[in-house]
Every structure is written in structure tokens, then in C-alpha cells.
């Protein structure tokens, strides 16, 4: 074992282990910053039914981060919903405010617009959609005003200052009471409470109650308007959104006021709500929109997960090929049952058991250090090191590398492939955002790095033992120390 080869391999493994967390950082940056290549939307079931007739004044209030189950507990919200149409609305994927609200106001899904995250990055130029076709359209945002300013309203109010926080409700009230054809109010406090304290917290319920009180005063200011009560996503129990979880994706919307008969149903798609807004305002959606008239959408609800985009065939098949290749190389290395990459299986299981499935709603996926994830698999790394150490003297270096690392590295490469992350990792400005796999990529990168570290330490341990344990014994000539 005391060979330059094993020393070189250890150095290469440690270099890889050092580099991969940086790769993960670039990956997360790509996810949260750029737009995706536009792709076709999921098809929606065909139904027949009429759309809404135009209304003279349309008012929309969106309570950011309000879950369907929370909305149903709010007294004002629920009472108003009973006067009109109550809908379960699937906002599609990902469940991030700006992408969802872009879909709500354009009638194009996140996949069609390519707007999938854009954390803190306004759309410039703003969206071309319903508000941009309505003269005098106005939006008032409690904060996070970059979202409101991205949506194409004629005028927008809102900033992040304390001064604005003190007066924004009055501004919202005045705007709603005005003659403007379309006014939109974006309430942010529920989402903020969800991130800080989680959906299952008293703080979240309190914020939802405050938002409900704001809703009451706003509706009082324009009781004769057609009202849209909206939400853009829910929150996980411990807080967080962005992923494909049904609780986060499916929210409650209501429409009431002149020309809206009581009723309800769903799930309908968030683009169907764009159509309801467009019809109420007498404007057309983008010709590429698959949105359906309200009656047709209610007549033909989506199946439970129909709004989740499917995995693209090409990248999916290529990723599968990479995984099979990893399996073949692993098979070359696994000469005894205990040499299988059990540590990797154990690490994935530990992560899921302790933290749950990683999704774009789980903060651990984004956290720079990833500590929340790797504390769960530390025992698995001990197993990786011990297996590699025992294997080195029995089957040699190359079989140990193949058995312990081929599968984790292949899994990481397959994740890069299915999410189309290769080009962005090398500098392309594209967001590798797909359901499920984007979230798994984050832990898979760290797992590969940590597995490399464990195996490298085992190689160095073997090297040190041979160096110090038998210092005077020369290496036999012509034998291959790596495999023999
Ligand atoms: Zn949020």
C-alpha cells in the first residue's frame, strides 16, 4: 500500500472533496438566480363552460404564503368565499412567489415563461400580461416590492422601509377605493411568518389573522367590485416553500362580486385564474396560454399532481444511462458483499429519516454549509472509511474506489444530467430547476464529496500503517502495490 499511486489517489480524492462544495454553491446560485430554458406546459383537461363576463372594477388581494388549510380558518376570507366561487388552485412548480405570480398574471406556466426562481431579481422589462393591457392598473405591495414591479402594472407602490410599513395599508385602502379598473394588493406578512416560525406556529396563525383583518377593511372600501382572493403557495409545517409538495402547491382562491354565482371546485390551474382575471377585464391572454374559461376549468378539474411538469425524456434517459454505468463500475469493485456501497444507502436513508425528503421547500437544500444534511449521515461516513480500510488490504485500491465511490459519483452526475445542470455549472446563465431532482442534487454533491474524504482517509491510513509499521521492508519488485 505504500506506493506513490495510493498517495496520488488520496490527493486527487481530497482535491475533489474540497472542490465539490464549491460546485454545490455554483449549482444553488444557478437555481436561485437565472431563468430556465422555456419548455412546454403540462396539458390541461378539456372541458366546456363559459368564462366570466367583464366587470367594471376588479380588485385582487394576494396573501403570500397562505396555505389552503389556514385560509379556511379565516372568518372574513371564508365568509366572503361563500358569496362566490371557491376554488382549489394548483400553482404548478416551482412554488416561488415571483414565478407563480408571473403565471397568475400572464396565463403562462413557469415552464413556459422560464421564470422559475429569480430570487430578488425583478423582471426587466416587466411581464407582458393582464395588468399591462389594463390602462391605469395599480399594485400596492406591503414589501418585497420587486415582485409587484415585475408584473407589468401601470403604476406600483411599495418598498422595504419602516416609513412605508406604517402607511401602506392606508395606500392600499385608497387604491382599492379608487376608480381604477384593476387594483392588486400584495400582502407579505404571512409568508414572512412562515419562513421565520413555520406554518405550524402561533406566529403564522396570527399573521394570517392580521391579513384577514386587512382583507376586511379593503373589501369594505370597494364592496361593489369583483374581488379575487388569492394565494401563491402554502408553507411546509416547519416553514419553507418552493417544492412540489401538494400542500404547498394547492391553495385556495375565491372570486365574488357582481356576475359571480356561488359555486366552486378544482383543482384548477393557476393559469385558469389568469383567464378569469383577463375575462373580468376584457383583455386577451398570450396565445400560447392553455388557460380555460372558468366554467370549463371547474367542469374538468386537474388530477392531483397533473400540474407538476414531467421529467424531460432526453435528460431522463441520459441520467439513467449514467446510473447504469455507475452500477456496472460498482459491480467490478464489489468482490465481497460487505464491499457494496452500504454507506451511501445508509446516508441517503439517514437523511430522509431524520430530515425528510429534500425538496425545494426545505431550507437545508440551499444552506451554504449544508450542515443540517450532513450531520444526519456522519455515521455512514464512518462506515465508508472502515469498509474502504478493510477492503484495501483484501481487494486493492481500484476495486475499493469502484465499490465505494462509483455509485455516489454516478448519482451526482445523473442528477446534473436530469436537471440539465452541466452547462450552467460551466457558466451558462440557466436555472437547472425541475421537480424532485434539483433538490436531491444538493445532498448528492455533498455525499460524493464526503465519501471521497472517507475513502481518502482510509487510503492514507493504510499508507501510514505500512510506512510506520514496517519501515525497513522494501517493496517487492514488479508487484503492483495498488491491486496486490
Ligand atoms: Zn416565501
What does this molecule look like?
It is a single chain. By secondary structure, the chain is α/β, with parallel strands linked by helices. Helix content is about 50%, strand content about 10%. It has helices at about 5-35, 70, 75-80, 95-105, 110-115, 145-150, 160-175, 190-195, 200-220, 245-250, 270-280, 295-300, 315-335, 340-355, 370-375, 380-395, 395-420, 420-425, 435-470, and strands spanning about 60-65, 85-90, 140, 155, 180-185, 225-230, 250-255, 265-270. An 8-stranded mixed sheet has the order 4-3-5-1-6-7-2-8, with helices on both faces. The model is unreliable at about 480-484 (pLDDT under 50). The structure holds zinc ion (ZN). Zinc ion (ZN) binds near residues 65, 97, 195 and 241.
Number of strands: 8
N-to-C SSE string, H for helix and E for strand: HEHHEHHEHEHEHHEHEEHHHHHHHHH
Bound molecules: zinc ion
* Distance between the ends: 8 Å
Radius of gyration: 27 Å
Look at the structure and give the CATH class of the largest domain.
Alpha Beta
Query: How is the main sheet built?
Result: 8 strands, mixed
Q: Please count the helical segments.
A: 19
Task: Please name the CATH topology of the largest domain.
Answer: Alkaline Phosphatase, subunit A
Please name the CATH architecture of the largest domain: 3-Layer(aba) Sandwich
CATH-level-4 superfamily name of the largest domain: Alkaline Phosphatase, subunit A
**Helix content range of the residues, please?**
40-55%
The chain-level structural class is alpha/beta
Query: Which regions have little confidence, pLDDT < 50, spanning 5+ residues?
Result: 479-484
Q: Based on Cα principal axes, name the global outline.
A: elongated
Q: How are strands sequenced across the largest beta sheet?
A: 4-3-5-1-6-7-2-8
Beta-strand content bin = 5-15%
Average residue pLDDT: 95
Structurally, how many domains make up the residues?
2
Amino acid at each position: 500500500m505504500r506506493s506513490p499511486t495510493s498517495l496520488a489517489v488520496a490527493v486527487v480524492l481530497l482535491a475533489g472533496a474540497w472542490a465539490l462544495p464549491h460546485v454545490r454553491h455554483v449549482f444553488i446560485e444557478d437555481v436561485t438566480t437565472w431563468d430556465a430554458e422555456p419548455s412546454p406546459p403540462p396539458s390541461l383537461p378539456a372541458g366546456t363552460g363559459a368564462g366570466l363576463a367583464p366587470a367594471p372594477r376588479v380588485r385582487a388581494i394576494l396573501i403570500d404564503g397562505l396555505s389552503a388549510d389556514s385560509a379556511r380558518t379565516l372568518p372574513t376570507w371564508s365568509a366572503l368565499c361563500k358569496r362566490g366561487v371557491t376554488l382549489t388552485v394548483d400553482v404548478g412548480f416551482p412554488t416561488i412567489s415571483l414565478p407563480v405570480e408571473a403565471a397568475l398574471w400572464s396565463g403562462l406556466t413557469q415552464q413556459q415563461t422560464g421564470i422559475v426562481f429569480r430570487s430578488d431579481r425583478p423582471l426587466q422589462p416587466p411581464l407582458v400580461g393582464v395588468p399591462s393591457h389594463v390602462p391605469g392598473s395599480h399594485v400596492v405591495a406591503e414589501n418585497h416590492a420587486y415582485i409587484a414591479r415585475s408584473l407589468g402594472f401601470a403604476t406600483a407602490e411599495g418598498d422595504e422601509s419602516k416609513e412605508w410599513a406604517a402607511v401602506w395599508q392606508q395606500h392600499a385602502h385608497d387604491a382599492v377605493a379608487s376608480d381604477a379598473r384593476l387594483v392588486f394588493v400584495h400582502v407579505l406578512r404571512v409568508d414572512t411568518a412562515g419562513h421565520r416560525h413555520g406554518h405550524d406556529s402561533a406566529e403564522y396563525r396570527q399573521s394570517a389573522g392580521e391579513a384577514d383583518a386587512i382583507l376586511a377593511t379593503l373589501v369594505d372600501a370597494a364592496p361593489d367590485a369583483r374581488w379575487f382572493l388569492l394565494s401563491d403557495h402554502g408553507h411546509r409545517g416547519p416553514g419553507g416553500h418552493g417544492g412540489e409538495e401538494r400542500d404547498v402547491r394547492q391553495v385556495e382562491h375565491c372570486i365574488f362580486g357582481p356576475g359571480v354565482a356561488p359555486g366552486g371546485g378544482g383543482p384548477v390551474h393557476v393559469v385558469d385564474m389568469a383567464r378569469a382575471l383577463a375575462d373580468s377585464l376584457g383583455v386577451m391572454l398570450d396565445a400560447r396560454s392553455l388557460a380555460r374559461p372558468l366554467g370549463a376549468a371547474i367542469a374538468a378539474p386537474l388530477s392531483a399532481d397533473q400540474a407538476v411538469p414531467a421529467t424531460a425524456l432526453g435528460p431522463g434517459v441520459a441520467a439513467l444511462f449514467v446510473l447504469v454505468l455507475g452500477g456496472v463500475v460498482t459491480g467490478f469493485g464489489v468482490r465481497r458483499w460487505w464491499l457494496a456501497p452500504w454507506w451511501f444507502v445508509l446516508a441517503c436513508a439517514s437523511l430522509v429519516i431524520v430530515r425528510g425528503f429534500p425538496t425545494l421547500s426545505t431550507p437545508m437544500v440551499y444552506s451554504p454549509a449544508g450542515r443540517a444534511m450532513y450531520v444526519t449521515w456522519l455515521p455512514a461516513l464512518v462506515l465508508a472509511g472502515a469498509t474502504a480500510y478493510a477492503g484495501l488490504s483484501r481487494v486493492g485500491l481500484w476495486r475499493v474506489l469502484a465499490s465505494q465511490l462509483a455509485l455516489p459519483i454516478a448519482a451526482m452526475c445523473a442528477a446534473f444530467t436530469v436537471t440539465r445542470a452541466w452547462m450552467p455549472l460551466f457558466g451558462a446563465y440557466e436555472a437547472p430547476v425541475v421537480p424532485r431532482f434539483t433538490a436531491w442534487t444538493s445532498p448528492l454533491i455533498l455525499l460524493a464529496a464526503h465519501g471521497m474524504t472517507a475513502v481518502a482517509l482510509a487510503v492514507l491510513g493504510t499508507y501510514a500503517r505500512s510506512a510506520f509499521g514496517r519501515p525497513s521492508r522494501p517493496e517487492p519488485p514488479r508487484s503492483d502495490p495498488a491491486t496486490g
